[in-house]
Design brief:
Blueprint (H helix, E strand, L loop, with lengths): L1 E6 L7 H14 L7 E6 L2 H12 L7 E5 L17 E7 L1 H10 L6 H16 L7 H22 L12
Length: 165
């Protein structure tokens, strides 16, 4: 799996954890090991520009996903998933820090960025949360991936509750 993490935000973030959880999520979703992903960490001003340009919404957001080859998890009867370019995930640590502090299970900015990375991966793979049933499926999968990664890393304490909308 080729995953690039590029921090352009000026904020110190745990880039290795972002890389690790992205790799874990893609393996768990059975994405081809030669697929490529880019994660870019930007400041609030850059995120706001992207949010306005692509969503026509004001202010910065927490995470945005830009799919490329529209890869999807393979079905149970597919032996070999296709490889390709997954796309880009853009994260904003300033928004992540605020969300983590305001979450019911208060958690750090880095924990929120890990959650948002998984959220972004799922969006790249075609998951959405516009409808209640889609939201239940996506957020359930998101929690299972974050919990599985945290258990594998031996991290203790409650997993971050979903704060993305």
């Amino acid at each position: 799996m080729s995953i690039d993490v590029n921090n352009e935000s000026g904020t110190e973030v745990d880039e290795q954890a972002i890389l690790d959880i992205a790799r874990y999520a893609l393996a768990r979703m059975r994405i081809h090991p030669l697929s490529e992903l880019s994660v870019i960490v930007v400041d609030a001003a850059a995120m706001e520009q992207l949010h306005i340009q692509w969503m026509d919404l004001p202010g910065p957001t927490d995470v945005m996903s830009f799919p490329m080859d529209e890869l999807r998890p393979p079905s149970k009867d597919e032996e070999e998933p296709p490889q390709g370019l997954l796309g880009d995930i853009v994260l904003c640590p300033e928004v992540a820090e605020k969300q983590g502090a305001e979450a019911p299970t208060r958690h750090s900015m880095d924990e929120e960025l890990q959650l948002l990375t998984v959220h972004g991966v799922l969006h790249l793979l075609g998951y959405d949360h516009e409808e209640p049933d889609e939201k239940a499926e996506m957020f359930g999968l998101q929690a299972a991936i974050v919990d599985g990664w945290r258990a594998e890393k031996g991290l203790t304490g409650p997993s971050p509750a979903p704060t993305v909308s």
